[in-house]
Amino acid sequence: MTDQKQILRDWLALKEWESSSGPEIPQHVLTILDSFPATNYADDEALELYCATLSTLFNFYRTSAYRHHERLDQALIKLGTCSKQQFWRPAVAFLTMAPGLGNEAIPRWVEALQLSAEQQRQLETERFHALR
């Protein structure tokens, strides 16, 4: 995981989204997200990098992230399995990027992460605001 953390750290530091219009998500970033462990043994640094990476994808790679939404939705669930606290920022970014996908995503997240009714309402409120 150390190499993967360094790759994500380096990629985030490049800020290539600032110089490109409609950038494509690099394949190596998707591969790391796919291989992220859905267990509680990820350290805090890995969780923060994973969270930052997902948030960056949803905020700056919208077109490409939309095309990969199913894959990234699963990445969000993995993150939430490890840390519900780290889940929220990229989840809100996902809903802002594609509020229409929230109809399907929110119930999946609620079930997979065993979110409370209050947490579900919070996600639905974020989705509502994104639709405006």
What can you see in these coordinates?
The protein is mainly α and 132 residues long. It is built from 8 helices and no strands. The protein has helices at 2-14, 27-35, 44-60, 62-67, 69-82, 84-97, 102-113, 117-131.
- Secondary-structure element series: HHHHHHHH
Average pLDDT number: 88
Using only CA atoms, what is the Rg?
14 Å
Distance between the termini: 40 Å
Relative helix content: over 70%
Globally, the shape reads globular
Secondary structure elements and their pairing?
Blueprint (H helix, E strand, L loop, with lengths): L1 H13 L12 H9 L8 H17 L1 H6 L1 H14 L1 H14 L4 H12 L3 H15 L1
Helix pairs in contact: 1-3, 3-5, 3-6, 5-6, 5-7, 6-8, 7-8
Compact summary:
This protein is an all-alpha fold and 132 residues long.
Keywords for this structure?
single chain, 132 residues, mainly alpha, globular
